[in-house]
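The protein record now logged underneath.
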Amino acid sequence: IADTLSEMGIWYVGGKNSPYIWLKCPNNMKSWDFFDLLLEKAAVVGTPGAGFGSNGEGYFRLTGFGSREQTEEAMQRMRALLG
């Protein structure tokens, strides 16, 4: 996940000692708008930061809890969508 976000130039934090990565939504998108985009256009699901309170707005949480294969597939889909 971190490698893909780095390749795309998307700011993120986490993933070193945790299965969670927080990223800044691209193009100043609202977190629920980004959720909708990923779900509808890439079939990728994550957690909108707005669900964690007002300070979470504009951020999005991804996790590495799925299988490696599913995670790699999700990153391929995100890369294809966001390039």
Notes: The first strand starts at residue 12 and ends at 14. The longest helix spans residues 68-82. The radius of gyration is 12 Å. The chain has a mean pLDDT of 95.
